[in-house]
C-alpha cells in the first residue's frame, strides 16, 4: 500500500467541523484513497473513498488535493459518537479489498 | 449491522483448549480476511482468502489455522494458544474489484487466553 501519514490524535468541539488530514505522497494515478473509522472495540467502518474528485456522502466529505498527495476527511458537525480512530488507507490497486491499517488518528469529540 | 457476523463475541480459553471462531457473510463477496488487533495496536492482517483459496498468510503461527469451506464462511481454528494471543479478532469481506477496497467488518471476537 502507498504509505500514509496521519497525526496521532486530534480534538474537536461537539457541533464543529472535524478536519482530519492525511498525506499520501507516493500514491499512484489509479489508486484510491479510503477512509475507515473504528469506534472503541468495534469492527472498522467504511466512511468514504475517492480517486481525484472531492466526494461527499451522508457521513463525511473527502477533499483530495489536485496533486493527490494529500487529502482531508471532513465531518461537518461532529458529535460525541464520532469519537473514534480514523484510518486513511491507499490500498494496492490489484488487491481489491485488502486493507493495511496504520496507527490512524484518534479523534476525540468533546462537549 | 454490516452483513458480516462473527461468533462468539467473547471467548475465554485455556492454553490447552481447542476452539474455533466463525465468520459468516451473505453479501455475495468473494474475498474474506482475518485481522488481529492487540490492545492499543493497529489491526494486523493475518490471512486472506480469495474465491475460497488462501492467498496470504502473514507469518501467522501455526497455532492459528484458517478454513474457508465456501465463499460465505470463514473459520479460525485455535489450539495451544499463548496469553499474548489475547486480542480482538476481526473478520472482513469484500468484492474483489480492481482498485476498489470497500470491506465490511464483523464486530469481532474478544479472545482471552488464560
Provide a quick synopsis of the model.
The complex is a heterodimer of chains A (111) and B (114). Chain A is mostly beta strands and 111 residues long.
Q: Determine the strand fraction of chain A and express it as a percent band.
A: 35-45%
Computed structural class of chain B: mainly beta
Provide the helix percentage of chain A: under 10%
Q: How far from one another are the termini of chain B?
A: 31 Å
Uncertain runs of chain B are none
Q: Order of SSEs of chain B, N→C?
A: EEEEEEEEEEE
Biggest interface, chains and residue tallies: A-B, 26 and 31 residues
Rounded average pLDDT of chain B:
94
Molecular shape of chain A: globular
Description:
- The complex is a heterodimer of chains A (111) and B (114).
- The termini of chain A are far apart.
- In chain A, strand 3 and strand 4 form a beta hairpin.
- In chain A, the strands form 2 sheets. In chain A, strands 1-9-8-3-4 form a 5-stranded mixed sheet, with no helix packed on it.
- By secondary structure, chain A is an all-beta fold.
- Chain A is built from no helices and 9 strands.
- Chain B is built from no helices and 11 strands.
- In chain B, strands 2, 4, 5, 6, 9, 10 and 11 form a 7-stranded mixed sheet that branches. Chain B has a 4-stranded antiparallel sheet with strand order 1-3-8-7, with no helix packed on it.
- Chain B is globular and about 40 Å long.
- The chains are: A mainly beta (111), B mainly beta (114).
